[in-house]
Amino acid sequence: MAKIVLVSGSTRRDSVNGAVVETVRHILAGLPGGHEAVTLSVAELPFYEAELERVDGSAAVREAKALVAGADALFISTPSYNGEMPGALKNALDWLSRPGGASPLVGKVTAVASASPGARGGLDAQAGLVGVLGRCGARVVEHEPVAVGGAGGPAVEGGRFTDPDLVALLEGLTLGVLAAVADRAGALV
Q1: Contact (Cβ atoms closer than 8 angstroms) between residue 113 and residue 173
Q2: Tens digits of residue pLDDT in 54-103
Q3: Which of 95, 105, 111, 187 has a 20 to 30 A CA-CA distance from 135?
C-alpha cells in the first residue's frame, strides 16, 4: 500500500489540473493494494516569508509538511502560466523545501503532469517544475511527458477525465510512481 499526495497547481475550483489528480485518485482506488490518495491544496498556504518561517510557519504549512513527510510519493499536475508553473505551486514548493536539510521533498518520489486549454497542454511548465523539484531533492519519476492539451475538451464526469486514451496515459504514469515507490522501498531494506 502506498500513500500518494495529489497536488493540483491550480487554485481554481473545477480546474482541469484538478480533474487530472481526481483521475489519478480514481485510478489508485481501482488498483489492488489499497493505495491511499490525499490532496494537498496549494491555495491553503500563505505566501512564503522568512519571518513567518522563523516562527515555524503557519498551521497550514506545518500540516502540508507533515502530509508530504508521511507520504510515499507526490503526484503534481500543473497548469502553464506564461510557460511556467503558477506562483501558488512554486510557493508551496518553497515552503516544502524548507528548512534545507529537513525538507520532506528530499528523496520523495514525485510524478509530474500538466493540463492546459492550449494545444501543448502545459508541457512548457513541466521543465521548470522538474528543475525546481530536482533542486529540492525530490526523485522525479522518469516517464514520457503527460500533458493534457485542449483540456477544456476531454470529457469530465464526476470531476475526472473519462477519455480512455487519457486515462491510460495517467494510469501509466501512476503505475510508474508505484514502481518507483517499490524500488525505493526495496533499496532501503
Answers
A1: yes
A2: 887 789 999 999 999 999 999 999 999 999 999 999 999 999 998 766 89
A3: 187
Q: Where are the alpha helices (DSSP H) in 70-143?
A: 87-96, 123-135
CA angle 60, 174, 121 (to 5 degrees): 80
- The pLDDT tens digits for 14-27 are 899 999 999 999 99
Tell me the pTM.
0.94
Asked if 169 and 152 touch (Cβ cutoff 8 Å), the reply is: no
Grid coordinates of 158:
464526476
Are 147 and 115 within 8 A, CB to CB?
yes
Residue 80 is part of a domain; what is its CATH number? Answer: 3.40.50.360
- For residues 158 and 189, what is the distance between their CA atoms, to the nearest angstrom? 40
Question: Strand 156-157 and strand 109-115: pairing?
Answer: unpaired
**Counted domains in the chain:** 1
Give the domain range for residue 16: 3-188
Query: What CA–CA distance (Å, rounded) separates 61 from 64?
Result: 5
| Residue-wise burial string across 43-52, b where 16 or more C-beta atoms lie within 10 A, e elsewhere | eebeebeeee
